[in-house]
């Protein structure tokens, strides 16, 4: 990058001179109030204004006059304006500067007699922003009709960044008051989203990729700062290039596109030049990056165009990346001190990243992207953490610390909710809790339909802490234990002893209820932090699950050995994921047999029974069903992957969400075919994908003859209520009469049936 403009090394410009003076003031050992008084005096002098005042945002969304040069001294700490009230309140509520030659005739002008403001005709004010948040307002006023220039506005904005640090120091107002109740837009917002894990949550926003707070704002040597910026740009671009070459698609289909956009934006000369201009006004490189971003946010916050909004969130993200490179912060502080009621906000995240957070403090997650069958959603459901996804424009609206309400029932996110929303939330929360109490009270009631068909409601699990959910929900067993989750949360590859310990504790906790252990299903979006792998073009269809286990048989042997040792005299159910060929199942089964033989030779106590099954996730299995059923003890349909491969639609791609319905004729016929083949061979078939936990999908599956469903624990209660209120024979007759219907039609027909027949959905 080359140096822009002439001021960088030469004469001090107005802004730089002012900043230099303010820097001297800030460095003096004075109380904060005295420094603020000195700052407004200095600004008034340097900007040739009769008045300069600083307002600080206090709890309750009130702007209090904290210091003034020019207005009546007795008004200090007395004059208070609500956010949105008067010109000062307007600047705060929109986080946007105002420059008015004739301020008194502006419709927003609010006259305060105690200040003596009637003397001043013109006004220029800027928000005091820190990490994108309004902390106050800085204003200058003149008696004459003064047309403030854009440069003067910029200068005041630059100085406001220093004032922000003074306020954030916590001396002027207590730090607790700084805990924001307001964001860049201080008004409440409602956004539509999709409930990917059910529930309600109230808490404060924690950004998965947090904003960075700056300590050094003012710099003496612009040339040095420009060099630093130059280096940061270079290293950021290199890092983006690395990401692009490494990209394994773990962020879903849009991930690469986002990276490419970043790479393009990083080349934007206009952006770099604006930062350089801000450096030339006397800021450090990092403060200059922040200032340009503040300006951009203020300018773009009212834009409705979804594409441009998306770009704003890209710019935020890119801005954070550039700051990290400038400040040498290369690790994401994923495990910071979290507030008690954290609501995690992210564009998207992987399942392992979610598991990094302290679950006790995590009340909810909201994602700009995300889909129901993405693994982050599955993990959230397993952890019973409400997750809303597909929330377009989220990142541009939410600031760290914003109060948030997640309403999974109505699929809405409220940012900075108003009092009436909070009241409505409390009512919904009570109703939800009442429903949960009733599910808990009914947990021991059999899951039998009105016409006497028993359904096995099993739960999916992946962590030891999930196991107590078995008794809490009254699930009949664990129909899918995703062993990879243990591997994902570990810091290194768990050895046989560690794995045996985990599996034994799962079986202990299950107290005799059946548990189906699925062997390692890593790859695709399930990554092990300690295992670096080569990038793949198409990881969902790549080297994953059983394919890895067969290519690295030592890993599979160790896992099976750990399961055999853990079962020791108890029933062992093993299931292999992503089987595409009968031969693959045979190879895996052979390894299991060898391990059983080895255990016997070593004198270990063998499992009481061993049942071996496979996941039906790859369509090719459909044409090998006779051979498959002849070999397995059971099959479980992984409808998440199966649907992704049948429809050729990435399960993690938010754009394809809802486009292909598993209730559409093609998928129904496929499932029916599998169930019928299972009956013909006398082998049980279950479904353990996300369909199984959706009451409407589950109704359709039951009508097709399915008797075992395995789902996230929070779905068990609602499913039991559905099963117990359903006459399956009636539903089967109804569906037979409907014939083949499109997915959406089938859904509305099923819903109508449920409504007319009192089925609890
Ligand atoms: C599935 O694919 O439906 C399944 C249950 O496995 P996972 O979601 O873990 O890939
Ligand atoms: Mg799967």
Residues in helix, %: 40-55%
Class per helix and strand makeup: alpha/beta
Total separate domains: 5
The small molecules bound here are:
phosphoenolpyruvate, magnesium ion
CATH topology of the largest domain: Beta-Lactamase
Q: CATH H level of the largest domain: which superfamily?
A: GAF domain
Distance between the termini: 61 Å
User: In CATH terms, what is the architecture of the largest domain?
Assistant: 2-Layer Sandwich
Q: Which CATH C-level class of the largest domain is it?
A: Alpha Beta
Q: On the 0-100 scale, what is the average pLDDT?
A: 88
Strand arrangement, major sheet: 7-14-13-9-10-11-12-8
Structural notes for this entry:
With 761 residues, this protein is an alpha/beta fold. It folds into five domains: 2-178, GAF domain (Beta-Lactamase), CATH 3.30.450.40; 181-209 and 336-432, 3-Layer(bba) Sandwich (Glucose Oxidase, domain 1), CATH 3.50.30.10; 211-331, Enzyme I, Chain A, domain 2 (Orthogonal Bundle); 442-453 and 639-687 and 689-761, Phosphoenolpyruvate-binding domains (TIM Barrel), CATH 3.20.20; 477-631, Alpha-Beta Barrel (TIM Barrel), CATH 3.20.20. Helices cover 44% and strands 16% of the residues. It contains 27 helices and 22 strands. The strands form three sheets. An eight-stranded mixed β-sheet has the order 7-14-13-9-10-11-12-8. The protein has an eight-stranded parallel β-barrel with strand order 15-16-17-18-19-20-21-22, surrounded by five helices. Helix 12 (375-383) links the parallel strand 11 (362-367) and strand 12 (387-389). Helix 8 (269-280) crosses helix 9. The longest helix is centred in the N-terminal third of the chain and has 25 residues, at 222-246. The two termini are 61 Å apart. Mean pLDDT is 88; it is low at 1-11, 180-184 and 247-255. The structure holds phosphoenolpyruvate (PEP) and magnesium ion (MG). Phosphoenolpyruvate binds next to strand 16 and helix 22. Magnesium ion is lined by residues 617, 638, 640-641. It is found in: Cytoplasm. It catalyses: L-histidyl-[protein] + phosphoenolpyruvate = N(pros)-phospho-L-histidyl-[protein] + pyruvate. It comes from Dongia rigui.
């Amino acid at each position: 990058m080359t140096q822009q403009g002439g001021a960088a090394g030469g004469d001090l410009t107005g802004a730089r001179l002012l900043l230099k003076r303010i820097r001297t003031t800030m460095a003096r050992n004075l109380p904060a109030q005295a420094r603020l008084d000195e700052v407004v005096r200095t600004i008034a002098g340097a900007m040739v204004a009769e008045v300069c005042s600083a307002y600080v945002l206090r709890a309750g969304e009130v702007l209090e006059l904290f210091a003034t040069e020019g207005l009546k001294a007795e008004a200090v700490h007395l004059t208070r304006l609500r956010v949105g009230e008067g010109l000062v309140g307007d600047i705060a509520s929109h986080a946007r500067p105002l420059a008015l030659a004739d301020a008194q005739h502006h419709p927003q002008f609010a006259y305060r007699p105690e200040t003596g403001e009637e003397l001043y005709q013109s006004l220029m004010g800027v928000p005091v922003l820190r990490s994108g948040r309004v902390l106050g307002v800085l204003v200058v006023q003149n008696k004459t009709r003064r047309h403030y220039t854009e440069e003067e506005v910029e200068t005041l904005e630059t100085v406001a960044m220093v004032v922000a640090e003074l306020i954030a120091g916590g001396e002027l107002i207590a730090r607790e008051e700084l805990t924001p109740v307001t964001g860049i837009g201080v008004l409440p917002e409602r956004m539509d989203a999709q409930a990917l894990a059910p529930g309600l949550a109230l808490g404060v926003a924690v950004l998965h990729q947090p904003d960075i707070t700056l300590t050094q704002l003012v710099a003496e040597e612009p040339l040095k700062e420009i060099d630093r910026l130059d280096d940061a740009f270079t290293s950021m671009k290199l890092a983006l290039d690395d990401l692009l070459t490494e990209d394994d698609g773990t962020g879903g289909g849009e991930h690469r596109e986002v990276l490419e956009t970043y790479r393009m934006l990083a080349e934007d000369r206009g952006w770099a030049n604006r930062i350089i201009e801000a450096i030339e006004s006397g800021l450090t490189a990092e403060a200059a990056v922040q200032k340009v971003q503040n300006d951009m946010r203020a300018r773009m916050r009212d834009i409705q165009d979804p594409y441009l909004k998306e770009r704003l969130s890209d710019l935020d993200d890119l801005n954070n990346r550039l700051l990290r490179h400038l400040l040498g912060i290369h690790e994401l502080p994923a495990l910071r001190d979290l507030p008690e009621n954290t609501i995690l906000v992210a564009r998207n995240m992987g399942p392992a990243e979610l598991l990094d957070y302290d679950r006790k403090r995590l009340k909810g997650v909201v994602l700009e992207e995300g889909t129901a069958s993405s693994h982050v959603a599955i993990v959230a459901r397993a952890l019973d953490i409400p997750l809303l996804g597909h929330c377009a424009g989220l990142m541009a609206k939410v600031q760290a610390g914003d109060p948030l309400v997640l309403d999974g029932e109505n699929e809405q996110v409220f940012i900075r909710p108003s009092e009436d929303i909070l009241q409505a939330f409390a009512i919904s929360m009570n109703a939800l809790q009442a429903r949960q109490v009733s599910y808990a009270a009914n947990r021991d009631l059999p899951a039998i339909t009105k016409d006497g068909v028993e359904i096995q409601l099993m739960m999916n699990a992946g962590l030891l802490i999930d196991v107590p959910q078995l008794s809490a929900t009254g699930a009949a067993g664990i129909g899918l234990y995703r062993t990879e989750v243990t591997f994902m949360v570990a810091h290194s590859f768990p050895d046989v002893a560690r794995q045996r310990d985990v599996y034994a504790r799962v079986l202990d906790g299950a107290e005799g209820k059946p548990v189906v252990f699925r062997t390692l299903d890593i790859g695709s979006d399930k990554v092990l932090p300690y295992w670096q792998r080569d990038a793949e073009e198409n990881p969902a269809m790549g080297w994953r699950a059983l394919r890895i286990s067969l290519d690295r048989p030592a890993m599979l042997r160790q896992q099976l050995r750990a399961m055999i040792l853990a079962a020791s005299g108890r029933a062992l159910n093993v299931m292999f994921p992503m089987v595409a060929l009968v031969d693959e199942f045979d190879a895996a089964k052979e390894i299991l047999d060898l391990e059983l033989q080895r255990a016997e030779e070593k004198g270990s106590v063998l499992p009481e029974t061993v049942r071996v099954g496979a996941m039906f996730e790859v369509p090719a299995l459909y044409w090998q069903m006779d051979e498959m059923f002849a070999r397995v003890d059971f099959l479980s349909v992984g409808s998440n992957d199966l649907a992704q491969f049948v429809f050729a639609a990435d399960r993690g791609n938010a754009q394809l969400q809802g486009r292909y319905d598993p209730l559409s004729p093609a998928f129904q016929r496929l499932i029916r075919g599998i169930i019928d083949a299972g009956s013909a061979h006398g082998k049980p078939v279950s479904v353990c994908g996300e369909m199984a936990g959706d009451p409407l999908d589950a109704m359709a599956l039951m009508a097709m003859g399915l008797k075992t469903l395995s789902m996230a624990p929070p779905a068990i209660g609602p499913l039991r209520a559905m099963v117990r209120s359903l006459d399956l024979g009636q539903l089967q007759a109804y569906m037979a009469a409907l014939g083949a219907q499109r997915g959406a039609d089938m859904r509305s027909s099923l819903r109508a049936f449920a409504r007319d027949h009192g089925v609890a959905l």
